[in-house]
Amino acid sequence: MPRLQSVTITLQILVQLAFTAMIPVFLLGQGTRDDPCHEILLEHGDIFIMDGKDRQALHAVPRVLDLDRALKIDENYEKKITAVENKIVYEYLKQSRINLNIRQVN
């Protein structure tokens, strides 16, 4: 479900870090729920920063693409995640998604 950030914290930055073998489909709205959204595919290691007006926007991850679908989008995608040297971490990332959010609040 998309969330609308509190107006009281709109000037602070929101940083999101993606660690995953699966690709989250990140939606970023433009105002109301009826306005069209931008679809952004976040890949392993991506950093997404929202500030100002974007911080107020509706945003959500309604869908996560599995590794097979990620490879259809980018056949070299698996090489990006195989850079993870720890086999246990690599196997975990192939079936999970870690999303780290860093927010500044008053």
UniProtKB/TrEMBL annotation:
GO terms for molecular function: broad specificity oxidative DNA demethylase activity; ferrous iron binding; oxidative RNA demethylase activity. Its cofactor is Fe(2+). Pfam families: 2OG-FeII_Oxy_2. This is Alpha-ketoglutarate-dependent dioxygenase AlkB-like domain-containing protein. Keywords: Dioxygenase, Iron, Metal-binding, Oxidoreductase. Fe cation binds at residue 59. One of its GO terms (cellular component) is cytoplasm. GO terms for biological process: oxidative RNA demethylation. Binds 1 Fe(2+) ion per subunit. Residues 25-103 form the Alpha-ketoglutarate-dependent dioxygenase AlkB-like domain. It comes from Oikopleura dioica. The keyword Metal-binding applies. Signal peptide: none annotated. The keyword Metal-binding applies.
